[in-house]
Write a structure and sequence with these properties.
Distance between the termini: 36 Å
Radius of gyration: 15 Å
Helix content: over 70%
Number of strands: 0
Strand content: under 5%
Low-confidence stretches: none
Shape: elongated
Order of helices and strands: HHHH
Mean pLDDT: 87
Largest sheet: none
């Protein structure tokens, strides 16, 4: 299986250490979908990625709620969309080739998630800073 690594980039650091660390961990998990692998290992990696996304989104939403971020519900809907895409991938993975799974993970992390950070996540950071909660994030 060969596809480009899901790449972390400093330009998607939001400046909140906990959130940046979690984002980087998601990219690191996505990078495990490279190289030779078997179906079982790939499915385990996909399950780990799905679990980590749930934790990250919950913590991010708690941070936004703590600073009364006005667009929290819209952001939650975006998170729900991503969770559904990951869940669908997890459900369909058994019928997919390893390359197809890797391509889908690449799209989800390098495409959807990367852009989500650049657009939606950067929008809530000023609210966190104004509420003086940056040490939490």
């Amino acid at each position: 299986m060969s596809f480009e690594l899901a790449e972390w980039s400093p330009k998607i650091e939001v400046g909140l250490p906990m959130i940046d660390s979690q984002h980087r961990q998601l990219f690191d998990l996505a990078a495990t979908f490279t190289g030779d692998g078997d179906q079982i290992r790939i499915l385990k990696s996909l399950a780990m990625l799905t679990d980590y996304v749930k934790v990250h989104f919950r913590e991010e939403e708690e941070l936004m709620a703590a600073c009364n971020y006005p667009d929290l519900e819209a952001h939650r809907r975006l998170h729900g969309e991503f969770r559904r895409m990951l869940f669908d991938l997890l459900e369909n993975a058994k019928q997919m080739t390893l390359d197809e799974i890797a391509d889908e993970v690449k799209y989800l992390i390098n495409g959807w998630f990367y852009n989500h950070i650049l657009v939606a996540d950067f929008q809530y950071v000023p609210s966190v800073r104004t509420a003086n909660l940056a040490h939490r994030g």
